[in-house]
Specification:
single chain, about 90 residues, Alpha-Beta Plaits, about 40% strand, alpha+beta
């Protein structure tokens, strides 16, 4: 079953290649959606794809790239799909 997950990652997650690494991981898993930095210092992302693969990227978000220090990950799952064509980095 395909799902949509909105994820907010906090901690030391900006300026550590989190967005680029997230895009790389999502594309490796065949997921669509987007990732962006927020003004409050968090990283915000939406992942769409098969539930097991979305769960895999969510697990990855708890660790992130090597320089990241993730404090919290908030996940909101939905069955409604946006129908993204690819995975992008938003500004």
């Amino acid at each position: 079953m395909k799902i949509n997950a909105h994820v907010i990652i906090s901690g030391r997650v900006q300026g550590v290649w989190f967005r680029a690494s997230t895009k790389q991981e999502a594309e490796k898993l065949g997921l669509t959606g987007w990732v962006r930095n927020t003004v409050d210092g968090n990283v915000d992302a939406v992942f769409e794809g098969e539930e097991a693969l979305v769960e895999e990227i969510i697990k990855w978000c708890y660790k992130g790239p090597p320089l990241a220090k993730v404090k919290t990950v908030i996940v909101e799952k939905q069955e409604t799909l946006e129908g993204f064509e690819n995975f992008s980095i938003k500004n």
